[in-house]
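Protocol step 6 of 9: fold each sequence in the batch and record its C-alpha cells directly after the sequence line. For illustration, a two-sequence batch is reproduced in full.

Sequence one:
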Amino acid sequence: MKNGTSEGISQIALPVANNFKGIDPIYITVGSLAYDSKRHDIWISVMAYSKKGYLVRYNLDTRTFNEFELPKEIISPLGMTVDPQSRDLWVTNAGTSIFYKFKLHELNDDNNNVKIVKFVTSRASSRIFSDINVMSGSKDNSDNITNISKHAYTLPSWIKKSGGSLWFNEWEGNKIARFDSSHKTLIEYWIPSQNSLWGICSSFNNTMNSSTNNSNNNTRQTCGIASVLQFSTENGNGNNNDNAKQLWFTEWSENKIGKIDVSDRHLPFSVGVSYSESDLKELTIKRGESEKINIKVKTTGSQSSFYPKNEVDNHIIHMIVSGTFTPTGDLGNSTAYFNKNSFTIDTSKNIEKITLIFTPSTDLNPGKYTLMIGAENNAVSLLKAIPLNIT
C-alpha cells in the first residue's frame, strides 16, 4: 500500500453480467462476504433487489469462480456467514422473515441443486403497530393488527457466527436474535426503544390531532422500531460457550447504542416440544390432517432480569407459532390452535403444559417446511424449530 494512492489495491471483477440479463446494471449489487477458512473460499451474495439473487464462490488458491443460482424465492440474499464446524452457509433474504441454511458439502461443479433448509423468526410483534387504532380512528384494533402482521416482515439482515450460536438483527422486527442450530432454538430479544416515525405507524402520523397527542404522550415509545442495524458479540471466556457474553448494537433511528447480556441464566423461561414422532428428525403430516404437539414452558425465576419489577406484564407469557409457509412467517391457510394462548406465571409451579393442534392446509404444496413453536413475554421470545414433511 502507498499512502494517498491506489497502489497495492487490486480489484476482482465478479462474473455476474450473464446472470442478470434484462436487468439494468444499476440494480445489481453485492450483498455481503463470508469466508470459509477450511477451503479458502470466499462466498459473495449478489442480487438485483426483489428481482434475482446469486451466490458466487471464489477460491483463493486457484483464483477461480463458481456461480450458483438460487431458487426464485431467494431473490435478495443479503447477510451471510459460514459455520466453521459444520461448514453450513447461512443466508438471510432481505424483505422477508426467513433465513436459510445451505449444506456446502453438497455443492459441486456438477450439481448446483444444493439442499436448502428454511427457518423463520416469530411473526412481527403487535407492539410495533400498537397505536394504529388510535392513529387511524379504527374501533377494532385486533383485526387491524392481525391483518397487518400477516403482511409484515421482521427482516433478518446481517448474520454472523459467534460462540456456539448464529446471531442476526431483525431490522423491522425490533429484535436481536440468537439461533442455536444444534438444538434448533431461536431466542429473540426485544429492543425497548421504538420510534413512531419508522415502521408502519409512520404512515398514520399526519392523521393524529393535538388531542390524541395530549392524551397519549407515550406514542413514540409504544409504536415503531429502533432500526437495529449493526452489532458485535463478545465471548466473555474466549471459547465456544455462550455464557458470560454481551452483545452491542446500534439503533439507527434512535441515535443510540445498546447492550444485551445474553447469558442463558438470565432467560425467564425455557421451552420444550414433543410430538408423536419426536424420535425422528422430522414430523410427517398429511394435508388436512391434524397433529397434536405438546409444549412445556418452564419458568426459571428470572422474570425481572430484563425490565423493572413494577412492570405490569412481566409475569404474562404468550404462546406463539410461525412457519416457513409464507415469507412473513404467517401460517397462511394452515391452522394452529393452543389450548391456552397465554398464562400468568404461578410461583407455586414452574412448569406449564400447553397443547397445540396443527393442521396443514389442503392447498399447501407438499414438501419440507419448518414450524417454529414457542412462548414470549415483554422482553424475550423463545421458539423451537420443528422440521415438517407435508404430504
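Sequence two, same batch, same settings:
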Amino acid sequence: MTSEPILFEMRGHVALLTLNRPHTRNALSGEEMFAAFERLFEQINLDMQIRAVVLTGAGTAFCSGGNVAEMRDKLGMFGGDPAQVAANYRAGIQRIPRAFQKIQVPVIAAVNGPAIGAGNDLACMCDIRIASSAAKFAESFVKVGIIPGDGGCWLLPRAVGMSNAAIMAFTGDTIHAQQALDMGLVSSVVAPEELMDAAFALANRIAANPPQVLRWTKQLLQQGRQCSLDEALDTAGQFQGMAHQTADHAEALSAFFEKRTPVFKG
C-alpha cells in the first residue's frame, strides 16, 4: 500500500479520502499528514468536477486522535515550553480545522471505527457523519490531562448542542454509535459492511445537484455559524443573483418543465 498519509480516489463526482496510517490507528500527527489535508483540499477546490467528499479511515479505526506516544515523550507538537507548544499546535494540528474551513464542497465522514479525541473533532469538522455500528466516539482529552487543542470546544457544541458537548468534554467518556445517533452527533448508523455504500449513496444524491450552487450553499452554512441574520441575507442575495444567471439554473428549470432528469455541468 502507498505510504501517502491520505489516499485519494475519484468515484464519479465524489472524492474518497482515506486516512492511511492504520499502524497508528490513523493518528493525526506529523507534517506529512497536516500538509496532505491542505494539499488535497486545495486540489478539490480547484476541480469543479468534484461535488462531494467522503472521508474515512484505513483499518479498524477512523482516527485515534493525537499520537499519545509522542505526547508521553514530548516529541513533535508536544515538545517545548508552553509558548512553544502553543506555536507547535498552530503550525501543526490546527492547520486541519483551518483547511476544513476553506474546503468548498460538502464532506461526509464515514466513521468506520473509533473516533477518539482529535478523531472525534475531525468527524465534527465534516458536514455530515454516518457511523458504522462498530464506531465509538470520545472527546477524551481530559483523560490524558489536556484540553481539546484542535478546536473541539468550538466544533462539538455545534454538532450536539452545549449540554451534550459538555458531558462529552468534561467526562471524556466513550459513547457508542447508537448513543451518538441519539444525541445527533451522527445522522445514521449502519452495519459495518454497509457503511461505504451508505456514504456514497448520500454523496451521490448530493453530487447530483449543480456544483457551484453546492459550493455557495456550503459557504452560507459555514457563514451562518457566526454571522448575523442581516449578514446572512446579504450574502444569500449576492449568491442568489449569480445563481439565477447560471446555465445549471436554466437546465434545472428546463428539466422541471420537461419532466426529465437534469444534467448539470457547473
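Proceed to step 7 once all outputs are recorded. Observation for sequence two: The mean pLDDT is 96.
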